[in-house]
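Dear support,

I submitted the protein below through the web form. The confirmation email said the job was done, but the results page showed an empty box. After a refresh the structure appeared. I'm attaching both so you can tell me whether what I see now is the final result or a partial one.
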Amino acid sequence: MGNRVDAKNLQVYYLEGVQKETAIKFAKYWKDNGFVGERKQVMQLEKAEDGYSLKIIERKMYHESALSIDEQSKLQELERTLEKEVFNEDLTIIITDNTFRPIERE
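What the results page shows now:
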């Protein structure tokens, strides 16, 4: 799963190629912008040639539901904001199950 930084109810695992400072900067952004709630959140940052990927675990009860147009739009807006505010590179957000496998939707 990689190394980890913690912030309140947030655990951010970061894999080889992701600097600890980047993981900390992301965790701080996530917390400071109100994305950390009462439930524990576990995420994973990964570095690729074309930028970063952020894997977010979705609660099992939502796995069968397709993302609405509004939800897709908000994810894209979040990607752009994180690219600019945190990563300074391209970012792809991937919704996953609790083993960080992407959720396939129909």
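Response: this is the final, complete result; the empty box was a page-load delay. The radius of gyration is 13 Å.
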